[in-house]
Amino acid sequence: MNPMIRLHITVEGDTEERFVNMILAPYLSNMNIFADARKVLTRKDKRAHREYRGGSSPYNRVKKDILNWLKEDNNPECRFTTMFDLYALESDFPSYSDAIKIDDGYEKVTLLEEALKSDICDYRFIPYIQLYEFEALVLSEPKNMEWEYMEHDKQIKRIIEIVASKHGNPELINCGYNTAPSKRILKEIPEYDKVIAGPNIIQKIGLDIVRMKCKHFNSWISELEKLNGNLKLDDSTKD
């Protein structure tokens, strides 16, 4: 019997944390992989002995937070990953200046993930950056938005047409200030609540369909699924 894996996920904010707890963790638990999420540290109030987590943060703070978690749980059966949006990624991120010169989103995000993996430099760490934003997962089957937003037929139809214009691939919806996935949704449905409605809609869609429509996301989930079987191999090839 394969040993239990603990998977620690550093996430950008409340939406990703809820997605992990509500959808991803229950799914992976069937493979003896037990995931939890922690929002990235954004600042500390030393006087009040208080930490603030969630939202954008300079890369040096993100790196320190990830490294601290790696030290806090240094057991070989632990694995670590991230769930950050490519949209609005901080410009001090490793290889950012090279990545912004690349037009192809998949090439761009691969370069950034490889740079992050190299900079963290721990065999237990698996980087993941969402193309281009969490809402790409919501748009994998946008008709399911009707579960949360009834009487928005026309608006949802327009959102469906946006995805269709990208050949049905929501990961191709770009990261422009007004054209990122969440911006497209908010333009049509201003009351869209990404923290609550986002994961709820994904749950209605189902992880299988999301994976079929979002190949970069699917590659990440596939890598996580293999963690248990690859544990011994990984442990014998430490950096």
What does this structure look like?
The structure is a single chain. The protein is an alpha/beta fold and 239 residues long. It folds into two domains: 5-131 and 215-235, Rossmann fold; 135-212, no CATH class. Helix content is 45%, strand content 15%. It contains eleven helices and seven strands. It has helices at residues 14-29, 59-72, 96-99, 105-120, 135-138, 153-165, 181-188, 197-205, 207-213, 215-225, 231-235, and strands at 5-11, 33-39, 41-45, 50-53, 78-85, 125-126, 129-130. It is globular and about 50 Å long. Mean pLDDT is 91; it is low at 232-239.
The overall pLDDT, averaged over residues, is 91
Q: Which class do the helix and strand fractions yield?
A: alpha/beta
Give the N-to-C terminal Cα separation: 26 Å
CATH class label of the largest domain: Alpha Beta
Q: What is the number of independent domains?
A: 2
Shape, principal axes of CA atoms: globular
Task: Report the CATH topology name of the largest domain.
Answer: Rossmann fold
Percentage of β-strand residues: 5-15%
The largest pleated sheet is described as: 5 strands, parallel
Radius of gyration: 18 Å
**Total count of strands:** 7
Number of helices: 11
Low-confidence stretches: 232-239
Order of helices and strands: EHEEEHEHHEEHHHHHHH
- Share of residues in helices: 40-55%
Multimeric status of the protein:
single chain
